[in-house]
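Note to self: keep these together.
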Amino acid sequence: QVQLVESGGGLVQAGGSLRLSCAASGIIFRINVMAWYRQAPGKQRELVAASGSGGSTNHADSVKGRFTISRDFAKNTVYLQMNSLKPEDTAVYYCNAAIQSTSGRTYTAWGQGTQVTVSS
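Structure:
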C-alpha cells in the first residue's frame, strides 16, 4: 500500500509564504496525477492544484498567480509553493495521488493532511 506523507504546514501572517511537500512511498508502478486539495472548516474539500504525469499543471482560479505546484518524478514527491497567502487560504491541505500498481490496479491515495493557518 502506498503512503503519502505531507509536511510544511504551519502558521503564517497574511502576505507570507509556505511550501508544502508530499512524498509517496511504497510499491509504486506509476503515479498518474498528484494533487493538492484543501478543506476549510464548514466547507467542502476543494481542488487547489494538480500535476499530471506528462508535466501538465492546473491551478484553481482562487490561487492562480500565488500558488505553484511542482513535482519531482524521480522522488515521487509533489510540492505546493504558496505565496501571498491570505486568511481565506486557511485550511487543512491534503495530498492526493492517482496510483497504478504493478498489477495494473488503479486507486487513489490521500495524505493525512497538514494545517495551514494564515493570520490577518
